[in-house]
Amino acid sequence: RGGVIVAPSILAADFANLAAAVAEAAAAGAPWVHVDLFDNSWEACPNFTVGPPVVASLRRHTCLQLDCHLAVRDPARYVDALASAGADGLTFHWEVLGGAAEVEALARRIRGAGMRAGVALAPDTPLPEELVALAQRGEVDMVLAMTVLPGFGGQSFREGVLAKVTALRAACPGLLIQVDGGMNAATGPKAVAAGANVLVAGSFLFGHKQGLAAGMRELLGAIG
Ligand code: DX5
Ligand code: ZN
């Protein structure tokens, strides 16, 4: 488990009880909380979740890092509001931008606003060479290889995505590589073996019969 970060995804929590959800994550020893911001503007992510006001409210309830995953058409619209809300990281999708120059510019803007800059890849998006080059040049802090389609929790893990993680890890030894979707005590070890060092888990942790802390122990125990 050395150096692996587990980020409970509050998409699987009770949206009417988010203060309790982040308190449970903190009590379980999670260093980050993963917040999915979906605004139904991108056809690849047909869901609507929460926005910057909810991140601002979470900030008042937790010291945990707020790791925001934006599966939206125009992530640039949210940079300033999320920085003001106290987000620690902003991850946007490669697919919604118009190439490496735009990705680099947005990553710089996110960092300039004081947040970690992450770039997400949907499961069927091949690993772009230009993204590898940006990561090697240190222009992005994290790459998120989605292991389910963006939009909903509770889907099954797409193991084929791990080839991207392996390739990215070989090219970028120090990079934060996040996997998100279908993570549990069986799939987590496979993702870590491929080179992932940030595991997002929603339904496995918030739906765990013995509670989130037991789920964290089970996941961390499985990855060794
Ligand atoms: C899906 C979200 C995930 C989601 C994962 O689009 O990005 O963060 O919460 O849920 P599980 O862990 O249930 O697959
Ligand atoms: Zn997510």
Automatic annotation (TrEMBL):
Self-association and partners: Homodimer.
Entry similarity comment: Belongs to the ribulose-phosphate 3-epimerase family.
Chain's role: Catalyzes the reversible epimerization of D-ribulose 5-phosphate to D-xylulose 5-phosphate.
Protein name, as recorded: ribulose-phosphate 3-epimerase
Organism: Tetrabaena socialis
Covered residues, full protein: 530 to 753 of 757
